[in-house]
Amino acid sequence: MFSRIGIIGAGAMGRGIAQLFATAGQQVWLHDTRPEAIEEALAFNRGLLERSVAKGRLTPEALEQTMARMQPAQHLAELAGCELVIEAIVERLEVKQALFVELEGLVAADAVLATNTSSLSVTRIASACQRPERVAGFHFFNPVTLMKLVEVVRGERTEPWVIDRLVALAEQAGHFVAITPDTPGFLVNHAGRAFGTEAQRIVSEGIATPEQVDRILRDGPGFKMGPFELFDLTGLDISHAVMESVHDQFYNDPRYTPSYLAAQRVAAGLLGRKTGQGYYRYENGQQIRTPDAPVPEVIVERPFWLGNIDPELRARLQAVFDGCGARLEEGDEPSDAAICIITPLGEDASAAIERMGLPADRTLAYDLFSDFDKRRVLMRQPALDPALEAQAHRAFAADGVPVEVINDSPGFVSQRVVASIVNLGCEILQKGIATPDSLDRAIELALGYPRGPLALAEHYGPLNVLDILQGMQACYGGEARYRPSPWLRRRVQLAAPLTTPDARAGSVSGSTAL
Ligand code: NAI
After folding, report:
1. Is any atom of ligand 1 closer than 6 Å to the C-beta of 71?
2. Fewer CB within 10 A of the terminal residue: the chain, N end or C end?
C-alpha cells in the first residue's frame, strides 16, 4: 500500500478522494492553489463525519483519527515524500501536464502520478512527463465516498505495476475497480451515451414528448430516472458537452451523434434544475410534472383482434377489456369491424401493417417491453382513425393502469433505448474497453441502471435485441447508427452467452507448451 498519498485540488472530487482514503486508514495530504479551498474541504469532510457520528455509524474517536489522517499541504513541495499523488484540479490539458511536470521534479522516481480526469486523454497528460509509465487515470465519481466505483485507466505507456497498486488501494478502500484502456469517455461515460442520445432522437422525431419518454422508461425497463430528468439534474450544458466530445473523439461515429435540439436548448439557457427550467419546470427546487393524458370517455363498441399474440398476454388483456365490455375475436383474420393489435419488435407499425396486410385505419401496436401492470404503451400510425385510437386507449386503460399513446417508431421507446444500451455495451466489450465481468457492475454502480447491458439483454432475450437493432436499421434506410455490434450478432448466431469472451488477439489456443 502507499504510505503517503498527496491529493491536489480540494474541490468536490479532491475532498471526496481525501475522505475515502483517510477513512480507509491512509495518510493523505491535501493541496490546492487556493488555501481557503483546503480549509473548506476539511471543514466539509468533518461535517460529513459528524453526521455519521450523529447516526451512530462512527465513534467520536474514529472521527478525530480520520481527520488527523487528512493533513493540509500549503505548498506543493510538501508532497515530495508521497508515493502516490492524485490530481483533481481544473479539467485543462496543459494545466494538468504542467502540474505533473512540476511533480516529477519533487517526488521519488517510483512515485505514482494519477489523474482524476473525466474527459482528457491520460496518455496525452502523461506525454509531457519524463516517466509516462508511472502515470495512470484514477477516475472517481461524485460523490466519491458513495459512488463505489473507480475506473483505473491504463495510458498507452502505463506499466502494469502502477495499475496493480492503484487497484489494490481502491479495493482496500471498498471500491469496485474497472480497469480500462485510455479511450474516449473511458468505460462509464462511453457506455452512458446510449440512454440519452437515443431518447433525444425519439423526441426529435416527434414520437413522444420528453415526459412520456421518462414515464415509459421508468415504468417499463425500470430506470430510476428518465433520461430527460437526468439531463435536468446534470445540467444539459454538461451532458451535451460530453456527448459532443465523445462523438468528436470517435471521429463522428453515428452511434454517438448528439441532438441538434439539445444544442439549441443549451443556447437558450434551458439547462435544467440549476436554471429553473429544463425539460421540466422547477418551483422551489421541485420538479413540476404534467399529469398523464386523460383516458378518453368513449364507449368501446368495436371488438379487438390480437393476431398471434401469446396466450398469456391474451388472457390478461381479456381480463382488462372485460372492465369496459370489449370483446376479443378468436379468428385467424380480423372481422371488418375489429380494432387490430400487433406487437412488433424493432419494426414500426406502418411496416408491420404493410407486411401483414392489415387495415391501417384500425391497427395499433402494443409494446411487449411495457410493464403490463405499471404502464401500457400503444403506438399509432398516420392512417389510424382517431375515434378507434380512443376506443383502444379506453379498453387498454379499463383497469386503471395508465396508457401512453405514442407515434410510430421502430421499437417504440423502451425497445430502442434498451437495444441501444445493449448494443453499445457489446461494442465496449468488442473494443476491449471492459470485460464481461466488469461491464454490468460498473454501469449499475455509476449510472444506477436497473440492470447492466448484459443483464438487460438476458432479460429481454439477446435474439430479440438483435432483431430490434436490425429492424431499426432497416427502418432508417440502413443507418449506421443502429448497426448491431459484431459481439452481439456473433454470440446470437452461435447461441453462445453474451458473456463469452474473445481470445486475446495473437494468442495461440490449444497449443501445448514444449
Ligand atoms: P472543482 O472546481 O470543484 O475543484 C477543483 C479545485 O482545484 C479547486 O479548488 C481549484 O482551486 C483547484 N485547482 C485548480 N487548478 C489548480 C492547480 N493548478 N493546482 C492546485 N489546485 C488547483 O472541480 P471538481 O469537480 O472537483 O473536478 C476536479 C477534476 O475531477 C476535474 O479534472 C474533473 O473533470 C474531474 N471529475 C469531476 C467530476 C465531478 O462530478 N465534478 C467527476 C469525475 C471527475
Report:
1. no
2. C
Alpha carbon of 444 to ligand 1 centroid (Å): 25
Strand pairing class (286-288; 281-283): antiparallel
Q: How confident is the model at residue 509 (pLDDT cuts 50, 70, 90)?
A: low
Torsion of CA 165, 171, 176, 179, to 10 degrees: 10
> Could you tell me which of 40, 1, 48 has the C-alpha nearest to residue 20?
48
Atom number of ligand 1 nearest to Cα 89: 7
506 pLDDT tier (thresholds 50, 70, 90)? confident
Query: Cα separations (Å) of 324 from 194, 319, 393, 460?
Result: 39, 10, 11, 31
For ligand 1, say whether the CB of 97 is within 6 Å of any of its atoms.
no
- The model's confidence at residue 511, banded by pLDDT at 50, 70 and 90, is low
| Cell numbers linked to 29 | 495530504
pLDDT at 307 over 90: no
- pLDDT bucket at 510, cuts 50 / 70 / 90: low
Q: How many CB atoms lie within 10 A of CB 294?
A: 8
* Residue (of 281, 260, 284) closest to 271 by Cα position: 281
Helix (H, G, I), strand (E, B) or coil at 25: coil
End-to-end CA distance of the chain: 38
Contacts of 3 (CB under 8 A, 6+ apart): 27, 83
Q: Which residues contact 226 (CB under 8 A, 6 or more apart)?
A: 199, 210, 213, 214, 215, 216, 217, 218
Q: What is the pTM assigned to this prediction? A: 0.95
Contact 419, 472 (CB under 8 A): yes
Residue nearest to atom 30 of ligand 1 (CA): 88
- Render 345-403 in DSSP notation, one character per residue: SSS-HHHHHHHHT--GGGEEEE-TTSBTTTBEEEE--TT--HHHHHHHHHHHTTTS--E
- Is residue 38 in contact with ligand 1, taking CB distance under 6 Å? no
Query: How far is 32 from 99, CA to CA, in rounded Å?
Result: 12
Active-site positions read: 118, 139, 151, 189
Best residue for ligand 1 mutational test, from 29, 31, 90 (most atoms within 8 Å of Cβ): 90
Closest-CA residue, ligand 1 atom 23, reads 11
Unique residue bearing C-alpha cell 433505448: 417
Q: What are the pLDDT digits (tens) for 72-84?
A: 999 999 999 999 9
- Tell me which residue has its CA closest to atom 16 in ligand 1: 89
The bridge status of strand 135-140 relative to strand 149-154 is antiparallel
- Cα separation, 176 vs 440, in Å, equals 12
Q: What are phi and psi of 280, to 5 degrees?
A: -120, 165
Helix (H, G, I), strand (E, B) or coil at 26: coil
Q: Is the pLDDT of residue 458 over 60?
A: yes
Share of the chain above pLDDT 90, in %: 97
Residue 340 grid coordinates: 387490430
